[in-house]
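Key result, reporting period 2: structure in, sequence out.
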């Protein structure tokens, strides 16, 4: 029996797939939201009898190997490794494994570097780092679990160590761990920093973040994107949180690495963080595999942050239920968790919906008793309401707004009609929104043509008087004005 067959015999596709997504039993099969394309109704099916998966939306189908290759974005060899480990099948020996290509080499470098950084905690400065972490309430167990380490403040001790282990400067640079100065000198990328290794969904180290320690400099730096590490395709802590997220059916999204570590330490093991406060399309799609409920735990002034707002809009468009945990002003989630666990627990239970949060903050910004205040609150809040895809939800928020600012629902609905949403959705969504509008196909095409002509007026020459007759009177008028304005002679 080949390794391939042995793994297939030992693993059940339902177990493999459900370690990545929430499966729902329907008859003798299982279904889920497809992880490979964006959808709102599940068309992704798993058949335990045939041991295959198939998506009727995007057509992706195959066995466990195909599934792992697709979902982990890896080649066959890498999928074989992941599944062999799951199946408890003996992996090829170290020597054979070395030929597995560049990715495997980079994984090795990252693993060795992690061990190197961990060991440096035993040094003199390393001990101070431990003191510091303990002072931040991160205990020994967490330091080990999250494999925190110390990058010594030397020129290139990591590079020297990795060279000794048989890796070239070129490979170390590709792993994001060193760089060449103009004068040709090679420096470790992380020097004098506390190291937070970043893991993929299988808990393999793919990259690093370094926090400044006893020195000047940016608080955190991340290694540049590599073959293994892409900032927008990482969710810190998800490898350790995915099980709990699925069980509790919600995900706590926090701002920083230490927030996540402390949350897990204190029993909130469904916490993750994304770099910065923006959520990428990939991150949302990945989270959707585990839950559709997001609980944001950012600090107080995040609502003003455009990137965050955009991410929230995107999450809502993706049918996530988004809630916000309100924290005392000026406090980090980390402070609250380590000072008073019960208080944090209570805050998660009292999380308010994102719409409620918006309404609260708009009402606090303007005086709802003045005409001007009512108008501003309504305009801002209705802009958010208009983005909600669900009509019942829309109605709910308009009723609430109507009560809060004492304006009739009818007037609010009329005002909402007038609001034009910014063009803030990407690709496919944009098409969907246009198609959902009540414009005719002709109107849409005319509008598009006008947009193009306004951008590139020289193309007006393509529309001569004869073709003018194809357009609606309104568009015709605009086109004629445009030609006049540009003193354009169509005969030339
Ligand atoms: Zn699909």
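The corresponding designed sequence is given below.
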């Amino acid at each position: 029996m080949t390794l391939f067959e042995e793994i297939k015999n030992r693993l059940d596709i339902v177990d493999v797939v459900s370690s990545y997504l929430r499966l729902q039993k329907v008859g003798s099969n299982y279904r889920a939201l497809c992880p490979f394309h964006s959808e709102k109704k599940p068309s992704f099916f798993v058949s335990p009898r045939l041991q295959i998966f198939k998506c009727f939306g995007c057509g992706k189908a195959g066995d466990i190997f195909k599934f792992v290759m697709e979902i982990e974005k890896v080649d066959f060899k890498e999928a074989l490794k992941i599944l062999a480990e799951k199946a408890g099948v003996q992996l090829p020996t170290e020597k054979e494994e070395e030929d597995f290509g560049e990715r495997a080499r980079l994984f090795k470098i990252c693993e060795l570097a992690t061990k190197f950084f961990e060991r440096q905690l035993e040094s003199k400065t390393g001990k101070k780092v431990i003191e510091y972490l303990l002072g931040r309430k991160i205990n020994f167990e967490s330091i080990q679990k999250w494999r925190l380490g110390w990058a010594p403040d030397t020129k290139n001790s990591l590079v020297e160590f990795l060279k000794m282990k048989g890796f070239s400067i070129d490979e170390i640079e590709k792993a994001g761990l060193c760089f060449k100065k103009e004068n040709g000198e090679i420096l470790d990328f992380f020097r004098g920093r506390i190291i937070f290794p970043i893991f993929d969904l299988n808990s393999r180290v793919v990259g690093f973040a370094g926090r400044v320690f006893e020195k000047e400099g940016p608080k955190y730096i991340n290694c540049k994107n590599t073959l293994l590490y892409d900032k927008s395709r990482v969710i810190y802590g998800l490898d350790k949180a995915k099980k709990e997220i699925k069980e509790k059916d919600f995900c706590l999204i926090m701002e920083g690495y230490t927030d996540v570590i402390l949350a897990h330490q204190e029993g909130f093991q469904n916490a993750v963080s994304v770099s910065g406060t923006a959520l990428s399309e990939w991150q949302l799609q990945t989270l959707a595999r585990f839950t559709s409920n997001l609980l944001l735990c950012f600090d107080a002034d995040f609502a003003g942050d455009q990137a965050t707002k955009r991410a929230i809009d995107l999450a809502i468009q993706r049918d996530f239920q988004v809630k916000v945990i309100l924290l005392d002003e000026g406090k980090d989630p980390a402070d609250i968790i380590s000072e008073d666990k019960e208080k944090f627990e209570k805050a998660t239970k009292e999380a308010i919906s994102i719409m409620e949060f918006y309404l609260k903050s708009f009402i606090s910004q303007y005086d709802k008793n003045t005409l001007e205040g009512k108008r501003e609150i309504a305009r801002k809040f209705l802009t958010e309401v208009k983005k909600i895809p669900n009509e019942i939800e829309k109605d709910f928020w308009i009723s609430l707004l109507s009560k809060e600012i004492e304006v009739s629902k009818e007037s609010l609905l009329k005002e909402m009609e007038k609001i034009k949403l910014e063009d803030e959705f990407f690709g496919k969504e944009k098409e969907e929104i246009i198609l959902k509008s009540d414009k005719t196909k002709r109107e849409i095409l005319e509008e598009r043509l006008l947009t193009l002509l306004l951008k590139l007026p020289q193309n007006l020459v393509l529309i001569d008087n004869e073709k003018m007759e194809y357009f609606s009177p309104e568009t015709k008028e605009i086109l004629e004005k445009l030609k006049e304005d540009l003193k354009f002679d169509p005969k030339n």
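The chain has five domains: 3-95, 102-229, 233-350, 357-418, 438-485. The mean pLDDT is 85. This case is discussed further under Risks and Mitigation.
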